[in-house]
């Protein structure tokens, strides 16, 4: 097997990208990289430190004080921000409501893309995000673009928040947040969310997690050398 086979998974918010990416990584023995968590952690730092996203000087200075690291336990991706475990906090609504604006910033994206590309130079990885197959790894041999019905996506996200003890957010608020993020992700100037020409569409509206994994494995298998 190649030592740096990259599987790129892009798609809309709450389409199950990370669920599929983690399942693929576990099945194949690859490393899972959650690119979205990187942008969320940066957003959390900006919120905590009152960084004005419209001020390039502040953004550049802030990025110099941010150190992100991934730790994998049972193929669950855990991220630390300057040594602090923030995996749960970055999934809460304050970050969700601001991450699109932060991740659309050219300086932020360039810095994160550089870090992501370094991760894929010498390792077999599965990476999910918004621009993995178009900007980060345009030459990745296997690319998926995930989508699902907006209502189903909102229900999934709402249940995820409830499972983490967040009972203050309504289903309607989650639906509106996802609609806002879809618009921001697809219309931003810097690396917008689009399907790569050679990406395989995976609509999991009516698929179980096991069914979507089987679908993906069937597409990946030809690229594996046994």
From TrEMBL:
Q: Read off the SUPFAM superfamilies from this record.
A: P-loop containing nucleoside triphosphate hydrolases (SSF52540)
Its annotated compartments are: Cytoplasm
Q: InterPro entries, alphabetically? A: Cytidylate_kin, Cytidylate_kinase_dom, P-loop_NTPase
Q: Which residues bind ATP?
A: 11-19
The record lists the catalysed reaction(s) as:
dCMP + ATP = dCDP + ADP; CMP + ATP = CDP + ADP
**Transport in keyword set:** no
Enzyme Commission code: 2.7.4.25
- NCBIfam families from the UniProt entry: cmk
The record's similarity note reads:
Belongs to the cytidylate kinase family. Type 1 subfamily.
Q: What is this protein called?
A: Cytidylate kinase
In which organism is this protein found?
Pedobacter miscanthi
Taxonomy, top ranks, is: Bacteria, Pseudomonadati, Bacteroidota, Sphingobacteriia, Sphingobacteriales
Name the encoding gene, please.
cmk
